[in-house]
Amino acid sequence: MVRLDLGSIVLRRMRLDDIEAVKGLIKEGCEGTENRLILHLLTRPMALLMLATLSSILRCILHSFIMALVIPVFLVIVYLKITIPRSTGILGSRRPYWDYVGSSYQAEKEADLDNPYSRLAKPVGGKFKAGQQEKVKRHKKEKRKEETDDMEDLDERSWVAGEVWIAESDGEVIGCVSKEAVSRPGVTRLCRLVVQSWYRKEGVGRLMVQCLENREKQKSSKRVYAHVPYPSRIGEAFFRKLGYRLQGEVADGDEIINHDHEEPRKGWLAYPITKVFVKDL
């Protein structure tokens, strides 16, 4: 198996023609996450009490224990399936297309992220990978003119939708990470980090996060928050390896800073469905 050359990866903003590829990538990364979130919410004490109460009421009406037990659970699952992605935005599998358009607005003017591995690229067969370098140059030189009837709405949507950065290798989108809009100065919020299954455990996710951290640090950002879906142990371990700590934990020799608190995303019955990880730049 040939390992992925990290030096060949281009890290850039998502453009309009990348939207479908990014949507497919996020949908692939969300497989199983929704079901784990729903199971997490259904097993909370208040949720169990509510379901038991509804089942008892239906038992008196339907005279069927099985139906009285199944109907409330089924209705809640359907409700959560519909509302979780739209209400929280952490999954992104059902974000409105207009949000993706806003995220790609003026992407052509944004410089690519600096890939430290590209400087370490080794020659192959006596020649450098010129094809990749030429592709990077073409991306920088290309200027597409997108027409819109309402530029003011698109400007506003671009801020609300945030930014989506992608990792591209040989013209294929292999990873993405979202930087959400934050009104607080000096703060960056990351979510929806997804890497194509074929390229996982190759360092692509780490490369995207670290390069985006470097960019935000240059723009005077002091702290990065990463939202991880509550049942994702892999996501938790990943961010801990990158130096993040769970919000509320005390780092060695540090004290908890209470004046800058990031609220986790909440779902049904106001139960948190994300864990917030913090890193000071």
TrEMBL record:
Task: Tell me the segments the record calls region Disordered.
Answer: 128-154
Q: Where do transmembrane segments lie in this chain?
A: 47-80
Q: Which GO terms describe its molecular function?
A: N-acetyltransferase activity
GO CC terms: membrane
Q: Which InterPro entries match?
A: Acyl_CoA_acyltransferase, GNAT_dom, NAT_camello-type
Cellular compartment(s): Membrane
Outline what the protein does.
Answer: Probable acetyltransferase.
Family statement drawn from the similarity comment of this UniProt entry: Belongs to the camello family.
Would you tell me the protein name for this molecule?
Probable N-acetyltransferase 14
